[in-house]
Amino acid sequence: MWTDERVARWQRTGEKPSPVMVWTPEQTGAFLDFVAEDRLYAMWHLIAFRGLRRGEACGQPWSETNLDRHSLTVTGQLVQDGWEVEASEPKTDSGFRVVTLDDDTVDVLERHRKQQEADRAEWGSAWIETGLVCTQEDGSWLHPGKVTDLFERLVAASNLPPIRLHDLRHGAATLMLAADIDIDIDIDIDIKIVSDTLGHSDTRITRDIYQSVLPHIGKNAAEAKVKAKGRAKSKKKGERRKPDQ
Predict the structure, then answer these.
(1) What is the pLDDT, as a whole number, of residue 231?
(2) CATH code assigned at 89
């Protein structure tokens, strides 16, 4: 994870500690703020918060995206064959999955759909109807390789420490764990939820990938719990003093 110490070293030397690096939740938020007006903001948001793979985000159809029910179903992806792009099934059987959407993500997709409808009207008969959520300006398929290139340019322009596009998906797992973890609940429950959302075939894969960030998340959760108990005690003390007022 890009801790403050690692960011400081990167700023001094330009060195990346590991090929795979993950942003903190605050860094992810800063990036999404930076790209808020980007035409593909909905894609960055989906990968950052719901952990879709690049090809899945490029190939997600509106027909499998149900905003009323707050869910989308991953049934396919766009992949590169050389430099050509083709439609394919998900990477694994577990890649076929239903992903729950939070209210904020639904709002993002609703705004994106309205913009896409405006683009369709502007292009008129030249619009290419693919039925996909994320497309080029004329409605045609996105090229996964070009999406990666664009992401790298945006990260560089944001002045945030570098990560790969696939690392943005890794970051989604840390965000989910940070949001859902409770030190009174077995962490295996949270790992199972994250594993299912990401489309991993086994929770052991999820644990192996994210074991290095679990102590950091657990520590934050524990500290948050202590602070919450402290606030509760303060409130109770205040309530006992109330009759004397």
Answers:
(1) 41
(2) 1.10.443.10
Range of the domain at 132: 4-171
pLDDT at 213: 59
Beta carbons within 10 angstroms of residue 160's beta carbon:
17
In a domain, 202, yes or no: no
What pLDDT is attached to residue 180?
Answer: 52
> Is 229 part of any domain?
no
Within-domain flag for 120: yes
Q: How far apart are CA 51 and CA 191, in angstroms?
A: 14
What value does the CA radius of gyration of the chain take, rounded to a whole number of Å? Answer: 21
Q: Please, are residues 31 and 160 in contact by the beta-carbon 8 Å criterion?
A: yes
Q: CA 54, CA 134: separation in Å to the nearest integer?
A: 11
Is residue 48 in some structural domain?
Answer: yes
**Taking Cα atoms as reference points, which of 150, 164, 145, 158 lies closest to residue 48?**
164
Identify the CA nearest to 170 among candidates 55, 50, 74.
50
Q: How is residue 120 written in tokens? A: 């369709």
What are 85's strand-pairing partners? 80
Which residue ranges in the chain fall short of pLDDT 70? Answer: 177-245
pLDDT of residue 201: 53
Give the position of tokens 């292009």. 123
* β-bridge partners, 97: 74
What is the rounded CA–CA span in Å between residue 13 and residue 7? 10
- State residue 242's pLDDT score: 40
Q: How many domains does the chain have?
A: 1
CB atoms within 10 A of CB 237: 10
